[in-house]
TrEMBL record:
It holds the Pfam family 7tm_4. PANTHER family: OLFACTORY RECEPTOR. The keyword Transmembrane helix applies. The chain crosses the membrane at residues 24-45, 57-80, 100-118, 138-162, 191-213, 234-256, 268-287. This is Olfactory receptor. Keywords: Cell membrane, G-protein coupled receptor, Membrane, Olfaction, Receptor, Sensory transduction, Transducer, Transmembrane, Transmembrane helix. Residues 39-285 form the G-protein coupled receptors family 1 profile domain.
Length: 310
């Protein structure tokens, strides 16, 4: 579904034109991507096969790791390969596919973070009704709705992108395809499209951030009525979630809630939430969570022991 224009491919300018720096980019982001895959897949496998991690919080963490893995995979491999390429060419269809993947998995991450906040709110504020409210069937329905919502959001983004006519130049001053850099190349007045972008992606990021921070503020205030042990455990969990929220939403709000202007730090800010956040999430949720670390030790100890006995 390509509009009538003369552009069939785009050239990504990447993070830097310097060959030496491009090699550094390759090494750094290859390590980051491998760390993202290993960390998130370790969480996915551990939650899937561990009997001690069957609560709603870990059910949502399982889907957060899936979203993180897919989100990073939609960006990182291309960035890594392009860092060693002389000409970073991406087809029109490939560019549109990347826009779709970037937004569906990015939006899914936002929705899962909201569901995790809801889960912690119910667990701490309504502990007696928590097992009934957050039963397995409800969690499955919430995740399905999150995927549907992410698909609708991504379809809105791709429809906006497909309506843009391109007649040259075809140089994207970025390392990936997204609506902001594409708007700069469109042969039309993009004011209304940018307004729609801000009201869609910008509103989702800003409103979700406000909802999340408000909910965690309420949760933290309510901890005063808990025992010292319960307060310590809940505080550790909520602190991890708050770190993830700030790390992810800060750059997103910066990128999607402003006029179509370019700033020197745009690419680095985008790197932080497209590459950095999926890498940091497994570290934050494992290093600060004793239950996940213990489950990992038990699971992999059992598997190694069973393999050695064969």
């Amino acid at each position: 579904m390509q509009p009538n224009n003369s552009v069939t491919e785009f050239v990504l300018l990447g993070l830097t034109p310097d060959p030496m720096r491009q090699k550094i980019v390759f090494v750094i982001f290859f390590i980051f991507y491998m760390g993202t895959l290993v960390g998130n897949l370790l969480i996915i496998v551990t939650i899937k096969f561990s009997r001690t991690l069957e609560s709603p919080m870990y059910f949502f963490l399982f889907h957060l790791s899936i979203a993180d893995t897919c989100f990073s995979t939609s960006i990182a491999p291309r960035l890594i390969v392009d860092s060693l390429s002389a000409k970073k060419i991406i087809s029109y269809n490939g560019c549109m596919t990347q826009v779709f993947a970037l937004h569906i998995f990015g939006c899914m991450e936002i929705f899962v973070l909201i569901l995790m906040a809801v889960d912690r709110y119910m667990a701490i504020r309504k502990p007696l009704h928590y097992p009934t409210i957050m039963r397995r069937q409800v969690c499955i329905i919430l995740i399905v709705l999150a995927w549907i919502g992410s698909f609708i959001h991504s379809m809105a983004q791709i429809i906006l992108a497909l309506r843009l006519p391109f007649c040259g130049p075809n140089l994207i001053d970025h390392y990936c395809c997204d609506l902001q850099p594409l708007l700069k190349l469109a042969c039309m007045d993009t004011y209304m499209i940018n307004l729609l972008l801000v009201s869609n992606s910008g509103a989702i990021c800003s409103n979700s951030f406000v909802i999340l921070m408000t909910s965690y503020f309420i949760i933290l205030r309510s901890l005063r009525n808990h025992s010292a042990e319960g307060r310590k455990k809940a505080l550790s969990t909520c602190t991890s979630h708050i770190i993830v929220v700030i790390v992810f939403f800060g750059p997103c709000i910066f990128m999607y809630t402003r006029p179509p202007t370019t700033f020197p730090m745009d690419k680095m800010v985008a790197v932080f939430y497209t590459i950095g956040t999926p890498f940091l999430n497994p570290l934050i949720y494992t290093l600060r969570n004793a239950e996940v670390k213990n489950a990992m030790r038990k699971l992999w100890h059992v598997r190694i022991t069973s393999e050695s006995k064969r």
